[in-house]
Structure formats: structure tokens, C-alpha cells
Amino acid sequence: MDKAISVEHLKFAYPGVDDTPDIVVFEDLNLQIKQGSFVAVLGGNGCGKSTLAKHFNSILLPGGGKVYVYGMDTSDPEKLIAIRRCTGMVFQNPDNQIVANVVEEDVAFGPENLGIASPEIRNRVDRALKQVGMYSYREHAPHLLSGGQKQRVAIAGVIAMEPKCIVLDEPTAMLDPRGRREVMDTILKLNAEKGITVVLITHHMDEAAQAQRVVVLHQGKVAADGTPREVFSQVELLHSIGLAAPDTAELCWELNKHGFDLPLGSLEPDECAQILYEALKV
Amino acid sequence: MLKDVTLGQFFPGKSVIHRLDPRTKLLILVGYIVALFLAVSWLSYGVVFVFLAVSIAISGIPLKSFFKGMKPLMFILLFTGILNLFFTQGETVLVQIWTISITLEGVIRAFFMVFRILMLVTGTFLLTYTTSPIALTDGLEALLSPLKKIKLPVHELSMMMCIALRFIPTLVEETDKIMSAQKARGADFESGNLVQRVKALVPILVPLFISAFRRADELATAMECRCYQGGDGRTKMKLLRMHGCDYGSFLVAALLITAVCVLRGFGL
Ligand SMILES: Nc1ncnc2c1ncn2[C@@H]1O[C@H](COP(=O)(O)OP(=O)(O)O)[C@@H](O)[C@H]1O
Ligand SMILES: [Mg+2]
Prior knowledge:
The complex is a heterodimer. Chain A is α/β, with parallel strands linked by helices. Chain A is built from 11 helices and 10 strands. Chain A has a 6-stranded mixed beta sheet, sandwiched between helices. In chain A, strand 1 and strand 2 form a beta hairpin. Chain A is globular, with a radius of gyration of 20 Å. The model of chain A has no long low-confidence stretch (mean pLDDT 92). Chain B has a two-stranded antiparallel sheet with strand order 1-2. In chain B, a hairpin with a 2-residue loop joins strand 1 and strand 2. The site of adenosine-5'-diphosphate has 11 residues of chain A, from strand 2 and helix 1. Adenosine-5'-diphosphate binds next to strand 2 and helix 1 of chain A.
């Protein structure tokens, strides 16, 4: 099985309250995510990123079409626990996903729910905490940790369940630059070393640039899909849906408007500098 | 000002008392309270007091923390003391002012009553100071689990307690933030009469409640994502286990209760 998540003709609408019409989020969305890949999902506010993420582990069920997670239909109630074991979720606000008032007890929460034997839980908790670099904080109270540390504890809580896929819904939105770096490093490491499929919802272009694939959502449809280079060189398209390309691409694009002919796909400042150097050399 | 709530405060440590099983500590606390209420004389109070004093000494918790925790109870203690002092009938009148008299019996009774409350509270503090909140809820859940048979939602209650303990610091911090924000806009919480002060709390409580509901909603989703389905089929990372020192402690507690009962039998 090489497809982790498969969204087929997904339809979804939030029911309207009283007389207001339903809020239609997706009309016909198709998306496949490969096992072991690192996919970033971009999109403007309210375009349905969180709604999509909640379809990946049966928190929301499709109003039409199907969502398959490792071949399991998310609308099959029998598969519910198996699906949630496969795909872990990390949310934006770390405070609202930590259950216990000791770090290690919180990480143990998921495995405990799965009914795993005590010694094995202990092993998994220690392993998960080491993987996110929070082992030395295992006996701390979560509310005394920094935002980045809390978010890493939340990630440990998810990987202690040994999922094949992690979906992160704007995990860095509430963090300072340092916390963001800590969380990004952790995610990249999990993807590279453990082969965990990562779906990262974000609005930071530099984070999306570190993914293998970028999917841009707009009005419930996939507006762009490809490697970061491919997607970020479509600067006009990104602008038309209210997003900005990374600064490097933006700079080259602006220069192109004034008669240059630079490639837009550069993602790193060094790379961009090299392009500029080449262009200005003559 | 909200930072120093001592509710459920825990001082980590390595003493025997810290290492006891939470169930042991809970049961011994119950036994201790029973002994306290069975005690009727100086001697039996003395026995219970020695038990408490030795326990505190073993725990290594500084006495200061007990006094600090006692502060909010000052009023109740004073009230009990004064009530007993003035309204106990007795033979030996010590002081007579107008129609109010203070009798020797009153003094003794007031002393005992205050002493009893102090010992009760100190004993409870010793439990919460030496037991992590998680261990405490685990212990309670284990002790109350027979009640599941009569459909009492024991697991749910202990989960609620656990989450409440987890979110107290978060909500306290949030209250502080909201208060600062309202103060910055000119809100005044410190002056005015009672009605005005209560009214001033509304702009704090409304945002606090809204945020608490939002948190609860998000937390519920997060718990669902982590496969939470209630207490059935759930295991624990840390199993509660009784050791030699637990049995030893039970023995000491049993001795305490027996001693107090025997003393009571002799009318002491
Ligand atoms: N629980 C809900 N009830 C009704 N409408 C909702 C709910 N959650 C989100 N929406 C609406 O659905 C749309 C998509 O929301 P969301 O998936 O949260 O977007 P994003 O995460 O991309 O910002 C928005 O228009 C939002 O107002
Ligand atoms: Mg969102």
C-alpha cells in the first residue's frame, strides 16, 4: 500500500444555523498523499484547510465522495479506532491538546487509550520524548514549558501511538521564531528518520518550502500542486488567491517586471543571490 | 496576585511518605480523621498529634508551607474559637463581663475545637503536598472503582478532576491576562462598594467563559484524535503497587486508631 491518504470527490458543507444557508467548503476535491512523503498544504484563511485535516481521521465525515486512510474508508465506524491509530493530529494551540499535568503522563495518554500493556507504554513514552528532544522534561508540568516545547510534547503524544502519518494543523502559528524552528526540525526529523508521512498545514512559506510537495487550496479546490519550486514560481497565481510567494521568488518576480529574465524557483537566499550575481555579472 | 493559589500544591520529594502508594495515603488519612474525631482527652489528642508530627518530620516538608496554606482558614478558626469560648456553659467562671462569661470549660473546648480543625487540615495538606495530583486521582479512582458496579461514573469523575487540575494554571494565567487588558482600558477592580466590584468582574468572566468553552471544545477533539473512548479497555502507564512500607504504614495507622479507641474506652 503506497497511498497514505486518498480523497476522492469530497463534498462537505457545515450546516447553517437557523435560516442561514449551509457553508459549503468542498464541492469536488481530489487529493492523493503518498506514504512517507512530506506534504505542505497552503491556502488563505477559511479556505478549508482545517476542515480537510479533520477528514483525515474521521473527526468530520464526508458529505459526499470518499476519504480513504491507508485503504480504510473514514466513514466506516468499525474502522474508526484503526484510522485514528494510523493518523495522528497536532493542532494549533498546544495548551488545548495537553490533557495531563505531567509531561510523561500526557504522552502516555494515547497509548493508554489503546489498551497497551504498562511496560510497553513506558518504552513508547520514553522513545517518543527522546525523539522530540523533551526527555529531560518528562516530569515537568506542561504549563511551565515554552510554546515550542509544549508543541513538541503534543507531537510526542501523537508519535507514542506509533502512527504512520501525522497531520499538523498550523502547529507553529502561535509560536515565536525559535519555537517554530524547534517544531519544524522535529517534523523534518520524524519524516526523514522514521518515514512517517507528514501533512503540514501552514501559512509560513518558508516552512512549506521545506516540504517535498506543496498543495495550494483555494475555494475548496486544489489550485496548485507540485514541488515547492514548481508551486512558488507561479507567483501570479499565488497573488491572485491572496498568498505571497517566498521572498526570494517575490524579488525575482519584481525584477522580471523591470526587464530581467530571472528564474522564479529559487527558495534559498544563497541560491537567489547566485541567480542575481549571474544576471548582473555581464 | 492570582499566582499564589496553593490549591492541590505538590512538593516533589523522595521521602517514604512521598513514595507510599496514593491509596495507602488516602486510606490512612481517612483513618487519621476517624481517630481525630474519636479522641476526647488530652492524652488521645496527644497520641494523634505525635502521629501527625512524626509524619510531617519524615516527609521533610517545611512547616512554613503548612502555615502558608492555613492562612485562608484563619477566619473559620477564629470564628470557631470565639464561638466555643463564649457559648460554652460551665462551672468555673474565669472572667465575667456584663452577661458574658468565659469559663474554664469554654477555654478548653475552644482550644480542642481549633486544635482539631488545625490537625485535620494539616493532615490533608500533608497528603496533597506529598502526592502528585495525578497519583491522587489515580488512587481515588482505584479506591472508588467498586462503585462502578452501581453505575457511578468513577473513571469519568477522575478524568474530570485530572483535566481540571491541568487547566487551573492555564485559566489562572488567562484571568491575569484579561484583567491586565481590562485594567489597561481603565477598568477598576479595587474600589467601590460590593455591588460595583461584582459588576466589575463581569467583563472578566465573560471572556474567560467563552475562552474556556472554546478550549473545552478543542480539547475534546484532541482527545478523540488520541483514541479516547472512556474508561473501558484503558490501561495505565504507572500501575499502582503496594510495597513493604505501605503495609508498615497501615500497621502504624491501625495502632493509632486502636490506641485512641482503647483510651476512649477508659474514658480518657
Ligand atoms: N464548526 C464550524 N461550523 C460552521 N462553519 C465552520 C466551522 N468550522 C469552519 N467553518 C467554516 O468553514 C470554512 C473553512 O474553515 P476552516 O477549515 O477552518 O479554514 P482554514 O483552516 O483553512 O482557515 C470557513 O468559511 C469557516 O467559516
Ligand atoms: Mg485552520
